[in-house]
Design a protein that fits this description.
It is built from 8 helices and 6 strands. The protein has helices at residues 2-10, 35-49, 52-58, 91-102, 115-127, 182-195, 213-225, 230-240; strands at 19-28, 66-73, 79-88, 132-141, 163-170, 204-207. A 6-stranded mixed beta sheet has the order 3-2-1-4-5-6, with helices on both faces. 41% of the residues are buried.
Amino acid sequence: MIRICLLSLLLPGMAQAACRQALSLGLDVSSSVDPSEYLLQLEGVIAALNAPVVREILFLQPDAPIRLHVFEWSGPVNQTVIVPWTAIENPADLDAITERLRGHTRGVAAPNTAIGSAMLAGFAYLEDHSDCWIRTLDISGDGETNAGPLPEEIPLSATPTGVTVNGLVVGSGNFFGDIVSGEALDNLVVYYEENVIRGPVAFVEVAEDYDDYAATMERKLLRELSALAVGQIHTRHESDG
């Protein structure tokens, strides 16, 4: 409770906000992602959201819940909402999200990669959630933009005020034939760092391949969600002890 009071002093309007965080996850489903990788990506999101520490954070403050949204993207006009905005107030809400993810049928796997278009779609999705303390857009991908607007050409003025854009970069055998060099993955990380992420606390997490996707998504979620929660978790654990 002390942590919540301190935060309300630091960020005006937080005490009156309806949610702690609006978090939109954008998943790359372009043709560079094969069916097995797509399944690993989707199951990775499910595993990360249901990891014990992540669940604890999600359920910390039901009167100001986290709102989650998941969409997939590929070409310039190919964005499909998998999970519409859902406030996570209790385990049943998270279970419903899990079921939607498991029951989803993959959308259009366009042959091109339109990160800029995915960013603009994410901004539109987040626009109506200015009552949240924090707004975050995540873009996961395994390649650079080759269609639609370039991320670096999207002006900062197009980013809703206060929105942070984070990245999750995935190493994939589809970069250049069957084998991805470490240099290719490093270059993609630099591309995301220089052109995609936005905001003073924005970051990029790296999955060596899709087998590593679940662990990387969990790590990313913990970084994004724990800033407002760490004090509450520590206080609760101390009182339980």
